[in-house]
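Students often ask what a 'structure token' actually looks like in practice. Rather than answer in the abstract, let us consider Alpha/beta hydrolase, a protein of 331 residues. Its sequence is given first.
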Amino acid sequence: MKYFRNAVMAIMFMAGTGFISAQIRPLDALLSDYQYPYEVHFITLKSQDNDLKMAYMDVKPQKSNGKTMMLLHGKNFNGAYWERTARDLASKGFRVIIPDQIGFGKSSKPHSYQFSFSQLAENTKAILDELKIDKTIVLGHSMGGMVATRFTLLYPDKVEKLILENPIGLEDYKTFASYQTIDQAYQSELKNTAETYKNYQLKFYYDNKWKEEYQPWLDLIAGWTLHKDYPKVAWDAALTSDMIYNQPVCYEFKNIKVPTLLIIGTRDRTAIGKDRAPKELQPKMGQYQELGKKTQQEIPGAKLVELENVGHLPHIEVYPKFFETLYDFIK
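Now compare that with the structural description of the same chain:
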């Protein structure tokens, strides 16, 4: 009853201030009451002594071109935000696989789990194995770019091409920001609200310009904070923040052997742990207009497309430019 009362009060307060959309509602840890744009399937995983369910969407084209694309979501998102991308890819003949990583979206939220990019890559491969897909084009956004990089390094024979859309992990955050324990990260996550999430997205994603099409992706994570399940979500968010901080992929870009495209919104300033870095170092973090060029030089033969005055989510903020760039690389 306490959770329900708190949720109602939070909704009344935020709706009264005009801060969140009227449709926001409490969402449980598995988003059971939230409908994804395409049918959701599950595989079962026995992992680290946990019985887990991993969700994914499998969008099939009416007329196949014989190719498969796998779309990997970021940390503050889930597979649902690929709706438009998947629809347009399917219209071009691609089969599209969209996982929710363990700890995210509709997938299990284990408490005792050692999150690693290698583990997430192995879990992702399990979906392809279940579907008997031998080769795929991999697109990763934000944290999904780190997963995509590790997946490509571990299973290069399964990757036809790699696309990194404003990936995090283009720099080693440990060289800037101090460490925080998982317990500290958890306490920080518990403080999240619709307001803190929106302020973060405005600052790092959208250059303080909010549009209606951004709201659904805020409503999803804000809805979690209003539900009694939120501690489960916050705990896994703390574990995955620790994974991002402690498991950089930037030193291994030189080992990528598949054709690679970097789609970089140059206004992006996302950087993990920026608030824990010394004041003089904070302005040096998340400089995507520099990091994109640096990463292109490190990945053999990589192609770089910079989207000027675009933030962290090109496929939301400037979708036509994003899709044109993507399709030109994979067609």
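One point worth highlighting: The first strand starts at residue 40 and ends at 47. Ask yourself how you might have guessed this from the sequence alone, and why that guess would often be unreliable.
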